[in-house]
Amino acid sequence: MRLFISLLLLILSASTFAAPKAALWPYWQQYATTDSQAVDHSRWQRLLDEYLVVQPNQTLFRYNRVSDGDKYELNRYLRDLARLDPHQLNRNEQFAYWVNLYNAQTVKLILDNYPVSSITKLGGFFSFGPWDEQVLTINGKRLSLNDIEHRILRPIWRDPRIHYAVNCASLGCPDLQPEVFTASNLERLLDKAATRFINSRKGVNPQDDKTQLSSIYDWYGSDFGSTSQLQKHINQYRQGAPITLGKVSYDYDWSLNEAK
User: Fold this and answer.
1) Would the keyword Signal be found if you checked this record's keyword annotation (predicted)?
2) What count of other Cβ atoms lies within 10 Å of the Cβ of residue 246?
């Protein structure tokens, strides 16, 4: 029986790397055509200012330092976002809303379960991480983190830079940005996030006879297009000599992005 359970868990773990496809949830397509409402992300910015550590090659979070008062402020920020109707926001405000909501909720999940070595340890017994858990209610609808990323952000905006914006609290993930996304900065911040990731070893690491890429480019290959399109995308942000994608391997580190 123990052997059967071990084999089952091994099979389930292997299958988790078949990342969800972009599948539009049509309800969330509606948006305002005016600039009538701006979302206040200042609470989230203060938490990033206090607990995010930006190192040359990696951005880390001080989960073990977050005070009870700041946990309350994070919960308050998430409650405030949940009270808003995204349909009343214009497209840029919506994008910033969903990305900040995703990232703040991810930090909350880690804090609620801390200490933990990896976000993949969260979730049910037969799940790989918490991404399918319905942890938010917006407009009376229950949402999971996977809903936000794969049923809202990816199919509505169709921008591969989304993968550099949402953070999964792991060392292999594109960094949690020290600046909150807003309607006015999102293009600049998306390019900044892409540049930082592509020029890190965890993103793109040319080696002697091959190039090691983040598994993100494997899991979400459909978002980046063909090999030549991916190569063009990488070289658009790469600093230094352009790369040619011939022999490629993939890697990803699920360890917690924690500042000790």
Assistant:
1) yes
2) 10
